Amino acid sequence: MKDEIRIVFMGTPDFAVPTLEALLEDGYHVVGVVTQPDKPQGRKKIMTPPPVKEAALKHGLPVMQPQRLRLPEAVAELALWEPDVIVTAAYGQILPKAVLDMPQFGCLNVHGSLLPRYRGGAPIQRAIINGEAMTGVTLMYMAEGLDTGDMIAKVEVPIEPEDTSGTVFAKLSSAGAQLLREQLPLLLAGEAERTPQKEDEATYAPNLTREDEKIDWQHSSQAIYNRIRGLVPFSGAFTLWEGNVFKIWGAKVPNAGQSSVGSETPGTVLKLTDEGIEVRTGDGSIWLSEIQPAGKKAMAAGQFARGGQMKPGTVLA
């Protein structure tokens, strides 16, 4: 039956690749892949295909890259593939009703949170920024609302104290692919569960803005640390030094009793050593371990400290 079911896969980033690979490894007939358009990357703005496109082409699969899936011509092109089921994972566009109604077995989504918590486009980053100790993946039916469809199954994945968005993305990517592997045969046999979400328990994870990336030194050391690791390895958190963006890619919070106590303004640089840069926070201090001054590459904060460009007493804004 697997090779008789026509599957269209929709996804864009690395997160989605294991799910596509799992479908192919399990012998399903993936008739085509829909992903976001190529985008310019790096300082030279080289047009770069999404990871899902690269994976699809490796397997010889046809690829669609509509600017907007809801345009009639995009819907018509998709309909030519005659999908029996559509599987999405971090595709990045809302599916219109015409697409949701297209496959007989429905549209399924591998979502990186334990729904109904963290609906939206940045569930993994928001969970880490908010200091959550647990997240997971939900396999769900897609509906017209934002991640509002009925749930099929979930799997929990812990967020360790030193996890970043990058490490949690990898965990959830693998967990999501495995969850689909387990549930898709049940769904096609009409045996999968279907559980409505509880609207009163819903929370949201909107896409990150520039303001989300800026550190507020008045916050606690733990909150600042969570924000930094929640933005690694993607956009990165930043502060301002001498009016320029000063990115922070790594940090650590001193153990209880080891954080310096003082009356300095939050954001004040307290020490610069081979260990890094100690900065005053709203409730103590935090050590920056990897930084990136404007116009330069990321480097160990200890290496930067040895350069003598920044002095104790400097206030980061």
From TrEMBL:
Residues reported to bind (6S)-5,6,7,8-tetrahydrofolate: S113, L114, L115, P116
CDD domains: FMT_core_Met-tRNA-FMT_N (cd08646), Met_tRNA_FMT_C (cd08704)
Xref: PROSITE patterns: GART
Transferase found in the keyword field: yes
Highest taxon in the source lineage: Bacteria
EC number: 2.1.2.9
First-level EC class: transferase
Residue ranges of domain Formyl transferase C-terminal in the record: 208-307
InterPro entries to which the protein is assigned, alphabetical: Fmt, Formyl_trans_C, Formyl_transf_N, Formyl_transf_N_sf, Formyl_transferase-like_C_sf, GART_AS, Met-tRNA-FMT_C, Met-tRNA-FMT_N
Residues covered by the Formyl transferase N-terminal domain: 6-182
Pfam families according to UniProt: Formyl_trans_C (PF02911), Formyl_trans_N (PF00551)
SUPFAM superfamilies registered for this protein in UniProt: FMT C-terminal domain-like, Formyltransferase
The reaction(s) this protein catalyses: L-methionyl-tRNA(fMet) + (6R)-10-formyltetrahydrofolate = N-formyl-L-methionyl-tRNA(fMet) + (6S)-5,6,7,8-tetrahydrofolate + H(+)
Gene Ontology molecular-function annotations: methionyl-tRNA formyltransferase activity
Keyword list, A-Z: Protein biosynthesis, Transferase
NCBIfam families: fmt
Family of this protein: Belongs to the Fmt family.
Functional note: Attaches a formyl group to the free amino group of methionyl-tRNA(fMet). The formyl group appears to play a dual role in the initiator identity of N-formylmethionyl-tRNA by promoting its recognition by IF2 and preventing the misappropriation of this tRNA by the elongation apparatus.
HAMAP family: Formyl_trans
Name of protein: Methionyl-tRNA formyltransferase
Native species: Paenibacillus zeirhizosphaerae
